[in-house]
Amino acid sequence: MGLLRFLIIAIAVIYILRILARIFLPFLFKKAVSKMQDKMNEQQQAYQNGHTATEKPQGTISVDFVPPPPKKKPKLDQAGDFVDYEDVK
C-alpha cells in the first residue's frame, strides 16, 4: 500500500512540475535574454563612448609600444681561456 501511494504521489508531482515548467520557463528565459541584451547594449555604448573620446585626427601617428634595447652580448675574446673538450674512454 505504501509503495502504491508513493508512486501515485511521485507521478502527480512530476506532472505538476512539467505543467508549471511549461508555464514559467518561457517567462524566465525571456527575462534572462532581455537582461543579457541590456548588458550587451551597455557594454556597446561604453565601448563607443570610450573610443570616440580617444580617437586622433586623421594623419597623425602615435607609437604605443617601444621595444627595449637589445642586450649586449659579451665578447668571446675577452671571456678568458677556453680548453678543448675531449672524450676520455
UniProtKB/TrEMBL annotation:
Residues 42-89 are annotated as: Disordered. The keyword Transmembrane helix applies. It comes from the Bacteria. Residues 42-61 have a biased composition (Polar residues). Keywords: Membrane, Transmembrane, Transmembrane helix. The chain crosses the membrane at residues 6-29. InterPro entries: DUF4834. This is DUF4834 family protein.
